[in-house]
Amino acid sequence: MSTVNFAIYPFPFGFLRIDYEGDTTTFFDKVDQPEYHGQRTEWSDKAYQELIDYLEGKRKDFSFKYKLNGTDFQQKVWRALSEIPYGETRTYKEIAIAIGQPNATRAVGNANNKNPMIVVIPCHRVIGSDGKLIGYAGGLEMKKALLRLEAEHSEILR
């Protein structure tokens, strides 16, 4: 059994916490003011740099290794989220249909909310059926900013 370590980095929307086991990320999410900053490594620095590159419009996906811990249903939803192209959105209903459970819209929203890899698994690309921005754990301002960033850079990074 390996030890889970973490590192905290500055993030335009607060702080970013990266949990890792060896060279594999297990958690990548926005956090409030941390009590302490954990231990940064060359590996966590690389994962963080990929996020910075994404935020600067230099990359549209991530290459570092990660492991998703969740229920079978959550994993299915997170895989579907990973297939939403950069610069595009899908509704919760479309994700429910994509995973073969068209009546599970609310459960898709709950799985979205439990996403342990914010930005990496692009739950910010999921919107309400009416096109409105709803339900983002990082806050609607962050969701709006990420979607705006992708809209501005989607043609450049194709």
Structural notes for this entry:
There is one protein chain. The protein is of the alpha+beta class. The chain folds into 2 domains: 5-56, no CATH class; 72-153, Orthogonal Bundle (Arc Repressor Mutant, subunit A). Helices cover 35% and strands 17% of the residues. It contains 5 helices and 5 strands, in the order βββααβααβα. It has helices spanning 42-55, 72-82, 92-98, 105-113, 140-153, and strands spanning 5-11, 14-21, 24-31, 90-91, 126-127. It has a 3-stranded antiparallel sheet with strand order 1-2-3, with helices on one face. Strands 4-5 form a two-stranded parallel ribbon. The N and C termini lie far apart (41 Å).
Number of helices: 5
What order do the helices and strands follow? EEEHHEHHEH
What overall form do the CA principal axes indicate? Answer: globular
CATH topology of the largest domain: Arc Repressor Mutant, subunit A
The amount of helix comes to 25-40%
CATH architecture of the largest domain: Orthogonal Bundle
For the largest beta-sheet, the strand count, sense and barrel status come to: 3 strands, antiparallel
Biggest sheet: strands side by side, in what order? 1-2-3
How many domains is the backbone divided into? Answer: 2
The whole-angstrom Rg is: 15 Å
CATH top level of the largest domain is Mainly Alpha
Oligomer kind: single chain
